[in-house]
Amino acid sequence: MAASVCLELSALVLAQDQELQAEVTAKCFFDIEIGGDLVGRIVLGLYGDIVPLTVQNFRALCTGEKGFGYKGSSFHRIIKDFMIQGGDFVKGNTPWLDERHVVFGHVLEGMDVVKSLESQETSRRDVPKLPCRIVNCGELPLDS
Fold first, then answer.
1. Please, what's the b/e burial string for 1-29 (b: 16 or more CB within 10 A of its CB; e: otherwise)?
2. Number of H helices and number of E strands within the chain?
3. pTM for the model
């Protein structure tokens, strides 16, 4: 049975302009498109010394090394100035994750892309009207 996996960027990953809460031990990226147009890259610094299993799982979903992952998944819920929720490549929504958060990283680059996602028009149920997708993702060297 496949498990749902979800990423909630604004709630799980600290904003770029906030102070780091821990040492970054790994870096991953998301290339994002909105409505079929590439809008940019989000680079995430991950806190592997604080939450090693969470970071390892997240990194593996970014690289796709287990045969599945975030590549091609959508952000299915957006609440401006609060969160962008996505990465559920099984069902496209994850009510079981609502109100359950752990900070495991920091936006190092691409907060403008996060803000572009947050500014998307949504339905009354916070579903973006234009498709917002992770078109590519992976791991980056720490020194990049």
1. eeeebbbbbbbbbbebeeeeebebbbbbb
2. 3, 8
3. 0.82
Q: What is the rounded CA–CA span in Å between residue 137 and residue 129?
A: 23
**CA dist 124 → 6, 15, 108, 112 (Å):** 21, 25, 31, 24
- The token duo for 111 is 């907060």
Per-residue pLDDT of 55-82, as tens digits, reads: 999 999 999 999 999 999 999 989 888 7
Q: What is the pLDDT of residues 19-49, one digit of tens each?
A: 667 899 999 999 999 999 999 999 999 999 9
| 21's tokens | 């809460």
User: Are the CB atoms for 5 and 87 separated by under 8 Å?
Assistant: yes
Cα gap 81→89, rounded to integer Å: 24
Distance CA 144, CA 4 (A): 31
Torsion of CA 9, 15, 20, 25, to 10 degrees: 40
